[in-house]
């Protein structure tokens, strides 16, 4: 089978949002190539090279986001992707630099692509208790671990990105057996599913993307927790009468600020709010928006260029 490899030229700052767009149109994989990742590996001593081309460590701010689309779907899909990217730039361009968003394409032999792509994933140990594992990998659970299975073919949110990782670390500190949780912009459902597997009573997951809703529903089923999870297509919670002990939202700073009053209205007094998806230039904006709702900052984490915050009401 042949595929069209679509490459979007964007920025490090905009790469995750661009990847989210591409995930709407493929089940065959999305990949981000960013020199910041190479620099981070060197800085953190997570990987060593005997030799490395100096050009690979020069951060020009550009990132490439690649998606693989079935060849016979390309002509229908590309205009839709271009339209969504243009809308993304119009709505968020005042806050996030997206670069040129130039789209290039080439035909690749894809018979082995899916298997090669799957080999990229591995079980991820996040915090003291959570292990995020692709559903096709056999993993032997250790005592005190909670294994969260994900079908990573379906939607974004695997735990590899710093924003998701920090949310998972924070929520492990706040979950109790009586916790009712809300995951705003749930993507793959990784946060809500993790919360329930850690012992939460119930999790309510929302997303405005149909693929994300389908993915989160599927992932809750393969984890055996669908009886304690409800997934809905919604911009936040609508008119739902939910009072949560714990709310988490891993979105962009601009959307977090827009949703601040609504998010807070669904949080119980004494409850905890966990936010991520925040870059340093937007940190004060988010702090101000949620402080204005009567929330008190409790913890602040930073990984790479991203921040995560926990607040108490």
Look up the CATH topology of the largest domain.
Rossmann fold
What's the story with the biggest beta sheet?
Answer: 7 strands, mixed
The end-to-end distance, rounded to whole angstroms, is 53 Å
Computed Rg: 19 Å
Question: Based on CA inertia axes, which overall geometry fits?
Answer: globular
Which structural class matches the secondary elements?
alpha/beta
Strand content: 25-35%
Question: What is the count of helical runs?
Answer: 9
Main β-sheet, spatial strand arrangement: 10-9-8-11-12-14-13
Features:
single chain; 7-stranded mixed beta sheet; Rossmann fold; 2 domains; 14 strands; 9 helices; about 325 residues; Alpha-Beta Plaits; globular; about 35% helix; alpha/beta; 4-stranded antiparallel beta sheet
Structure description:
This protein has helices at residues 15-23, 35-44, 74-92, 113-119, 162-174, 190-197, 210-222, 253-265, 280-291, and strands at 2-11, 30-34, 62-70, 102-109, 124-126, 130-134, 146-150, 180-184, 202-207, 229-233, 244-250, 267-279, 296-303, 306-312. Helix 1 runs antiparallel to helix 3 (74-92) and helix 5 (162-174) packs parallel to helix 6 (190-197). The protein is globular. The chain folds into two domains: 2-117, Alpha-Beta Plaits (2-Layer Sandwich), CATH 3.30.70; 121-312, Rossmann fold, CATH 3.40.50.150. The chain is built from nine helices and 14 strands. 33% of the residues lie in helices and 31% in strands. Strand 13 (296-303) and strand 14 (306-312) form a beta hairpin. The protein has 313 residues and is α/β, with parallel strands linked by helices. Residues 38-57 have low confidence and may be disordered. The strands form three sheets. The chain has a seven-stranded mixed beta sheet, sandwiched between helices. Strands 2-3-1-4 form a four-stranded antiparallel beta sheet. A three-stranded mixed beta sheet has the order 5-6-7.
């Amino acid at each position: 089978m042949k595929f069209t490899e679509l490459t979007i030229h964007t920025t490090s700052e905009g790469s995750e949002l661009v990847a989210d767009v591409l995930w709407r149109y493929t089940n065959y994989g999305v990949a981000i190539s960013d020199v910041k990742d190479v620099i981070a590996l060197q800085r953190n001593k997570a990987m060593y090279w005997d030799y490395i081309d100096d050009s690979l460590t020069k951060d020009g701010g550009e990132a490439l986001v690649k998606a693989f689309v079935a060849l016979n779907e390309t002509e229908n899909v590309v205009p839709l992707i271009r339209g969504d990217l243009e809308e993304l730039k119009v709505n968020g361009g005042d806050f996030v630099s997206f670069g040129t968003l130039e789209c290039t394409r080439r035909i690749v032999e894809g018979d082995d692509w899916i298997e090669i792509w799957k080999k990229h994933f591995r079980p991820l140990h996040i915090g003291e208790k959570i292990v995020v594992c692709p559903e096709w990998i056999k993993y032997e659970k250790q005592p005190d671990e909670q294994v969260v299975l994900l079908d990573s073919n379906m939607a974004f949110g695997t735990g590899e990105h710093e924003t998701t990782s920090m949310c998972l670390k924070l929520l492990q500190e706040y979950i109790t057996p009586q916790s009712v949780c809300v995951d705003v912009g749930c993507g793959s459902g990784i946060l809500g599913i993790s919360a329930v597997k850690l012992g939460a009573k119930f999790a309510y997951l929302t997303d405005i993307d149909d693929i994300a809703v389908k993915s989160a529903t599927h992932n809750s089923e393969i984890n055996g927790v669908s009886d304690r999870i409800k997934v809905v297509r919604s911009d936040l919670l609508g008119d739902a009468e939910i009072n949560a002990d714990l709310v988490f939202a891993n979105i962009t700073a601009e959307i977090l600020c827009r949703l601040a009053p609504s998010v807070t209205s669904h949080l119980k007094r004494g409850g905890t709010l966990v936010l991520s998806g925040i870059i340093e230039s937007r940190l004060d904006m988010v702090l101000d928006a949620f402080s204005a709702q009567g929330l008190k900052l409790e913890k602040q984490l930073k990984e790479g260029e991203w921040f995560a915050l926990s607040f108490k009401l």
